[in-house]
Amino acid sequence: MNPKQNLGDTSPDEFRRQLHELADWIADFRQNLGSLPVAPNDKPGAILAALPAEPPEEGEPFEKILGDIDQDIVPGMVHWSHPMFLGYFGWTTTAPAILGEIITAPLNVNAMTWRTCPAATELETLIVDWIRQWMHLPQEFGGVVYDTASVGVMHALAVAREEAAPSVRKHGLVGAGAPVFRIYASEQAHSSAEKAAIALGLGEENVQRVPTDSHFRMNLGAMREMIARDVASRGRGIKPMAVIATVGTTSTASVDPVPEIATICRENKLWLHIDGAYGAGFAILPEKKSLTDGWSEADSIVVNPHKSLFVPLDFSVLYVRNLERLRRVFTLVPEYLRGDTVEAQKNYMDYGIQLGRRFRALKAWVIFRSFGREGMAARLREFVRLANLFADWINSDNGFELVAPVSMGVVCFRYIGSDPAFAGSHPSVSARPAVAPYLTGRPNESDLDALNSEIVERINASGRAYLTQTKLHGRTVMRIGLGNVLTTEKHLGEAWEMIQETAKQL
Ligand SMILES: Cc1ncc(COP(=O)(O)O)c(C=O)c1O
Predict the structure, then answer these.
(1) Peptide bond before 397: cis, by omega within 30 degrees of 0?
(2) Contact at 8 Å (CB) between 317 and 302?
(3) Is 279 helix (H, G, I), strand (E, B) or coil?
(4) Which residue, of 227, 234, 275, 383, has the greatest Cβ tally within 10 A?
(5) Which atom of ligand 1 is nearest to the CA of 89?
(6) What is the whole-number distance in angstroms between the Cα of residue 321 and the centre of ligand 1?
(7) Considering only CA atoms, which of 90, 383, 406 is closest in space to residue 248?
């Protein structure tokens, strides 16, 4: 080691200078974002090949590192915050969000117990309660912040499992003589259900996928039959355990009929988990309050403010009716932490498998205070308006059809060919229902699948916009998500033109 090397941190003056430089870098990045390609078109491995494979032996100046970020990293990124990024649910980067993240960095606490950072613990409790109020949930629901909804559903099902077979926590599934538990979720529900079943030793195939209706909502008759069949096979050791209802499914943002599902759960004594990862945020709009109908009957609910409440990744809240049920399953205090656990206070390490915890609530607090509910609601309302406008454009073009109703910021649509001979017999725009009764019946559906996929691939490769594709009832469709405050009607119009032109070229 260089004997003159400073063993402490960067000097205060130098750090201040670097921070100013970084502030300019961030402001420039945000200002010029729209002129960058949305996505790179490099071959896999290109970025790795441009970077030194050997770790540095000696420290390098910040300026050089920042320069390499500009040269090698930024061009290799899909810019989720770009106004033409319309993939997934859109994305929610905002100035208050960036400020919230920056403030969190120097504080760098570990909020595992109340005593290790009272402010982080108490602010988390406050933020979780603010969101509870926005979700119209009764006070008996308590929550905890995790990184993602996938982790949330795993914890929720761990509690369901413990309540269905009370000593699994202690003895394991076999030791507790647990049956084969079944979980029911619609075929449109997120794959985190299976991931949770894998992690909990419940078995991926015991997540039973329930068919959906023409609007991609869970088919209740089908679910009743599946539950009844499993109840009848109790002799083979099968036992229904939980239902996952989704409010805002990943592909179409469809909403399962929660009040009716809650009734089925009550009748069969099943845990009801609501996956509101995407859809829940929209409940802050008074006109969308009905999204939360039936929620007070749930056992657990997941809400992802990092999807629809303007908090940057990662920030997900799991609510449990009577949070003590979650604590009972996960509390475990080793001797080396006992001194830092104060009985009367909430120690968030007790509410999940994670011990070390970031101060996530701080960025949410900055954002929620900066926008207020009204500010967030106005922006969400604009996403819904743009989504409906895009749906109108689809509906007025004979070569495309809307394939799912639009209720939030997601639009699913399909190119069906402008040549009627190619597309089979499709009705003229004026004779068509607003949403196609779907996706079957044309002679060449699989050719159309390939075409739809190709349109998305070409647009994404061009770097001018970014869409996603998905499969609905077996057919490939295109999909856009409005969730970015930088995306305007003009951007959307450009994307629509690009889609039409690409379809024409193909
Ligand atoms: C409905 C739904 N649930 C759960 C998830 C998983 O979210 P996370 O990435 O927070 O685990 C997603 C992700 O898109 C989703 O759309």
Answers:
(1) no
(2) yes
(3) helix
(4) 275
(5) 14
(6) 21
(7) 406
All residue ranges of the chain with pLDDT < 70 are 1-5, 343, 418-443
Q: Report whether the peptide linkage leading into residue 449 is cis, meaning its omega lies within 30 degrees of zero.
A: no
Residue 306 CA: nearest ligand 1 atom is 10
Paired tokens of 105? 């960095």
AA letter at 206: N
Looking at domain 372-505, which of 3.90.550.10, 3.30.260.10, 3.90.1150.170, 3.10.20.30 is its CATH number?
Answer: 3.90.1150.170
CA of 202 from ligand 1 middle (Å) equals 20
Q: Are 84 and 490 in contact (CB under 8 A)?
A: no
Q: What is the pLDDT of residue 245?
A: 98
Cβ proximity of 352 and 316 under 8 Å: no
Residue 121 Cβ contacting ligand 1 at under 6 Å? no
Q: Which is the CATH superfamily of the domain at 12-78?
A: dopa decarboxylase, N-terminal domain (1.20.1340.10)
First-to-last C-alpha distance (Å) of the chain: 61
Mutation test of ligand 1: which of 92, 148, 244 has the most ligand atoms closer than 8 Å to its C-beta? 148
pLDDT in tens, 450-471: 999 999 999 999 999 999 999 9
Task: Answer whether 0.90 is exceeded by the pTM.
Answer: yes
Which CATH code, of 3.40.50.2300, 3.90.1150.10, 3.40.640.10, 3.65.10.10, is assigned to 109-358?
3.40.640.10
Tell me, using a 6 A CB cutoff, whether residue 317 lines ligand 1: no
C-alpha–C-alpha distance, residues 452 and 413, integer Å: 9
Domain chopping of the chain, boundaries:
12-78, 109-358, 372-505
| Structure confidence at residue 3 (pLDDT) | 59
Task: Give the Å distance between the CA of 8 and the centre of ligand 1.
Answer: 42
**Torsion angle, alpha carbons of 334, 337, 340, 341, to 10:** -20
Q: Tell me, in angstroms, the distance from the centre of ligand 1 to residue 250's CA.
A: 7
Asked if the domains 12-78 and 372-505 are classified in one and the same CATH topology, the answer is no
Tokens of 340: 């830092």
Pairing of strands 207-210, 180-186: parallel
Does any ligand 1 atom lie closer than 6 A to the CB of residue 188?
no
Question: Which residue's alpha carbon is at the smallest distance from atom 16 of ligand 1?
Answer: 250
Q: What is the DSSP letter of 447?
A: H
